[in-house]
Design goal:
Number of helices: 6
Structural class: alpha+beta
Strand content: 15-25%
Strand order of the largest sheet: 1-8
Radius of gyration: 17 Å
Helix content: 10-25%
Length: 170
């Protein structure tokens, strides 16, 4: 996932698409239903700088980084699995022991579902990818394409980073 902070205007379509896809929908074995208000698996954060009349607002979208070596997996062995496509998922059977997972995420993107007690996070809409979709709902809903998915080798990604002048958020 590439997030272009210069393009994001804070429309929150990504958040609304995620909620539409996951609230009241049980996508087991990928994840259980997301809570309507308490959980945000993707979150555009507003950053303001300057002072009136010279102010600037930007948005930085936070989401699970689907780490190649997830810290959450080390915290609770067996509770996290990484698919061949790189998507990191919480095992729904093991998710009840979620406090360690939540605390282990360096990005703060694992939350506990207050209704079920499950640890939950962005699934990258793995259920849709498995049905043939090429991108998760948040990316599909982004009108300015501030979010994009690139499937490539590490070498190809390094070339994209260099050509576009990308910098890691974290």
């Amino acid at each position: 996932m590439i997030v272009d902070v210069a393009k994001c205007v804070g429309c929150f379509n990504c958040l609304m698409a995620c909620k539409d896809e996951h609230v009241d929908n049980d996508w087991k074995p990928y994840t259980g239903p997301q809570q309507r208000h308490a959980q945000k698996w993707i979150e555009p954060l507003r950053h303001e700088r300057g002072k009136a009349p010279y102010t600037d607002v930007s948005f930085v979208t936070r989401l699970c980084m689907h780490c190649s070596n997830p810290a959450c997996a080390a915290a609770e062995p067996g509770a996290i699995r990484q698919r061949d496509d790189g998507v990191v998922l919480v095992d729904t059977e093991e998710a009840k022991r979620g406090e360690k997972l939540k605390d282990a995420c360096p990005y703060g993107m694992i939350s506990l579902n207050g209704d079920t007690g499950e640890a939950q996070k962005c699934t990258f809409c793995a259920h849709l990818l498995d049905e043939g979709w090429t991108e998760p709902r948040c990316v599909q809903a982004c009108p300015l394409r501030a979010l994009s998915v690139v499937r490539c080798t590490d070498e190809e990604y390094d070339r994209i980073v260099e050509a576009q002048g990308l910098k890691p958020l974290y």
